[in-house]
Amino acid sequence: MEVDSQEQLQRKQSTYLSLDENFEIQKEVYRGQQYSQIYFARLHMMRTLLYSLVPNWKSHLPVCTVLELKEGKECIIFGTLYKHMKLKPCILDEYSKERSVAPLIKPHNFMHQDDYLVLEDESGRVKLGGTKLSTSVYVTGVVVALHGKETSAGAFFVEDVLEAGLPPQIKRPLKSREDKYVVFVSGLSIGRSSSNPLQFQLLVDHITGHLGDEEEQGLAAEIVHLVIVGNSVEISRGLLNGQNLASKDQSRLCEPFKELDILLTQIAASLPLDIMPGSSDPANFALPQQPLNRCLFPGSTTYNTFRSCTNPHCFELDSIRFLGTSGQNIDDLTKYSEAKDKLDFLERTLRWRHLAPTAPNTLGCYPFTDRDPFLIDSCPDVYFVGNQEKYETCLLKGLEGQLVRLICIPRFCETGVAVVLNMRNLECHALTFGTQISS
């Protein structure tokens, strides 16, 4: 009877398609490229899109460049927003403060009541006025169309704003689907002094079906994919001080990777997994981060179920499109704008059709010369972001019938929480792993 029971518990399968080509850098070249080129590419693509939306928005108004503005004449202008911020960190200010006795204050948010927005195109720039365009919502790098007129002071009084809105979405097949689950986890931070190895092992045992009774094992068999969303390891800063490492320190440096590889090998033996780099992982700092080197995972890479992916990461499972980041894009938005919650930031990036609008202004990115890989041309079914303070989710509905599941994935090392998504209906829930023994 036991053998029959084991035979029935076959793990479900799903078809996988990687869509990371856009984020892959084949040959990194740093030969004096200017970041203006990525802004030009962004403006060109977004202006073409916004121009096609104008007939259904304000077809009676003329379209002008900044240079063609005339006082009192209503028109529409396209351009990239620049946010002038009084408290925005400046490297020269940092240097002067370090050499003075004044303490260096590092606020978590650099908003100030005197901040203002400027719109820029190839012909010039103009300061924006009015209350229609909120400085607390917008950030540098967003491309918009504005309806308004030039004032006697030389500013542009904004009367209305046109954003790109949610991109078109490929309709999912209407055929009936079965329950299949995707698990998301981020911020394992293996190597941190406060990390709990038992918690990690509980997560692995649950996913691989080595925990619980037959019913729980049956549910585990319906997990078809695991996505590890950045910050998997954490190296002590004391070991990264630029000095030659002693042999014992070299061993300590390798320990987190060895531990991670052991865990991933157990998972890869059971189901497919994707691992994305994060800000604390040994990958390039600038976005898009390239896949973690496979030599870090000698055990896991023996399985073809193991995939080292880019950050951002885009893929399809059974024709359902997933798009996500390890959190740097959203974390940067929290420093230079305000929102009621992190999900609001996720929604804005979709409405702006851009994953990382603050790159390269305040968020590091590769100096692309002919394209902007962070533009979102197709609306995902699931949009996730890792390494957040807490688990949050909602279902976003677009004006053209788009339906997107937004997910904030918390840091596992601090919360013990992973996120489970049902591909059949896009419903998701938190899965908490605790190791405290109640008295």
TrEMBL record:
UniProt-listed CDD domains: MPP_PolD2_C (cd07387)
Enzyme Commission number, as recorded: 2.7.7.7
Compartments where located: Nucleus
GO cellular component: delta DNA polymerase complex
GO annotation terms (biological process): DNA strand elongation involved in DNA replication; mitotic DNA replication
Domain DNA polymerase alpha/delta/epsilon subunit B positions: 182-391
Coiled-coil stretches noted in the UniProt entry, renumbered to this chain: none
Recorded family membership: Belongs to the DNA polymerase delta/II small subunit family.
Known role: The function of the small subunit is not yet clear.
Full protein name: DNA polymerase delta small subunit
Lineage of the organism: Eukaryota, Viridiplantae, Streptophyta, Embryophyta, Tracheophyta
